[in-house]
Amino acid sequence: MARSRRVRRWVIDWPARVALAVVVVIANVVGAGVVLVLSAWVLPEGPLADPATVRVLNLVTFGGYLVVAVPVGLLWGGRRFRMRSSGGDGACESREQRIEHRMVLYGPLRLVTVQAVLWAVAAGLFAGLNARFSLRLALSVGETIVLGGITTCALSYLLSERILRRTAARVLAAQPPRRRVLPGMVVRALLFWALGTAVPVVGLLLAAAYAQVYGDVPATQLAVIVLAVGGTALVVGLLVTVGAARAVADPVDAVRHAMRRVERGDLDASVTVYDGTELGQLQSGFNTMVRGLQERERIHDLFGRHVGRDVARAAAAAGEVRLGGEVRRVAVLFVDLVGSTALAAVRPPTEVVALLNRFFAVVVEVVEEHGGWINKFEGDAALAVFGAPADAEDPAGSALAAGRVLAARLAVELPEATAGIGISAGDAVAGNVGDVRRYEYTVIGDPVNEAARLTELAKTVPGRVLAAGAAVELADAAEAARWEHGGATVLRGRGEPTRLATPRDLPAPDPAVRGVSQDLGA
User: Fold this and answer.
1) Residue 320's pLDDT is what?
2) Are 459 and 417 in contact (CB under 8 A)?
3) pLDDT digits 0-9 by tens, 416-452
4) Cis bond upstream, residue 389 (ω within 30)
5) How many Å apart are CA 16 and CA 123, to the nearest integer?
6) Do the beta carbons of residue 112 and residue 20 sit within 8 Å?
7) Are strands 381-386 and 373-378 parallel, antiparallel or unpaired?
8) Strand ranges in 362-489 using DSSP code E only, listed in sequence order
C-alpha cells in the first residue's frame, strides 16, 4: 500500500513571516550593536599589550558572526513554523490541527530558543577569542553578551507575540482555550521584570564588583560605565515594561469595549481570542457569555411572539410562578373572519393560510399600535386585550380606536375578505390559568364573552363593527364622540340586554370588492 506523500507547509501566512523576520532581525542586530559598544568602549578591559588590535579583531569577528548568524537564524526560525502535512483522514487532520495549534501559540517561545542559542554561541565565541589576551576581558565580554542576549530575547518575545496575534486568533477560533496553555500572568510579569529590569541591574552590579576587586577603574570611567549601563537599562526596561503592559491591557480593553456594546443592547459584540493565558480564557469566556445572552434573547423573543411581549416581560419579572389572577378594568376586542369555513372548502389550503396570515398581520399591527396585545388566535379569529397585563390609561378608548382603524384597514388591505369586530369593556380576572407545568396568561370575565357575541352580530350589520354601550361610556370623551348609540338586544347566552354602539365615521366597504365571503353566502 502506497504511503501518502508528506509535504512541509507554513502555519503562518507570508505577511506574518515577513514582519517576524524584519522585527526579530532588527531587534537582535540593535541589541548586538549595544553589546558591542559597551564591550569595546565602555566596560573596563584590563591591562592589554595592544588594545587597538584586540578591538579590531573583535569588530571583524562581530561583522563575520552577524553575516553567518542572521541567515542561520532566519532559516532555523522559519523551520520552527513549518510542519509536515499528509492530507490524510480525519484522525490525521485532527492531530495536525493540534500540532499547528501548539506551533502557533508557542511560536514566540520557539523563536526565542533559536535566538538564545545564537547568543550563547556568540558568548562562547567571543569569550574564547578574548581569553588569549586577558581572562578578565573574556569574562567581561562573555557576561555582557549573555546579559544583552537575555534582554534582547525578552523584547523579541513581546514583539513576536504581538505580530502573531492574528494567526493565534485563527487557531484559537477553531479550538478556544479551555485551559491555560502558556505561563500565567503572574509568572509572565515576574519573568519580564527579571529580563527587562533585573538583568541590566545585574550588569551594573558586576561592573561595580570588578571595580572593587581589581581597584584599577578610575572614577571617571566608573561614572561612564554607570551612566551607559544605567541608561541602557532604563530604555530597555521601559520597552519591555510597555510591551508586557500592552500584552495585558489590549485583551482587557477589547473585552471592556465589547461589554459596553452589550450594555447598549448590541449582542453581536465579540472579541478576538488570541492569547493562550488567563487573558485568552477571559476573551473566550466573554464570547461564551454573549452567545448565551443571544440564545436567551432569541428564546425571549420567541416567547414574546407566542404569548405577547407584555406577558413575556411580566413573566420574566415575576420571581415565581403563581396561578390565578386579579380583577382588572380591561377592554376586549374580538375579530372573526367571515366565511372562512366555506372559503377553505373551495380554495387550496396554502391560499387559505396565506389569507389568514395577511389578515392576522393587520390585526396584530393595529392592536399593538393602540397598546393592546393578542391573547390568542382561535382558528380564523383573534382575541385582543387592552389594560392587562400592562396598565393602560384608557383601555376602553384604545380598544374602540383599534376597532375603527382595524375595520377601515381590512376594507382596504384585504378587500377579498370581511371580518366581524366586537368590542366590550369592564372588570375581568387576568392571570395565569392551568398548571404550574403548563399554563397561560389569559383574561376571563363577562367582557370577553360579550365581545365574542358582539362579533357574531357584527357580521350582519353594515361596517361589521359593534361595541357595547358600556365600553363607549368607559372611554374618554374624544373617542366616545366617534361612536353612536343604538338599540339594545339580548345577545346569545346572556340574560340582560346589551346596548349597541357603532362608529360614526367608519367608511363603508366598496360593494364591488365586498369579498368572496359574501359570494359564498356568508
Assistant:
1) 63
2) no
3) 888 999 999 999 998 888 877 777 888 999 999 999 9
4) yes
5) 30
6) no
7) antiparallel
8) 373-378, 381-386, 419-435, 438-444, 465-468, 483-489
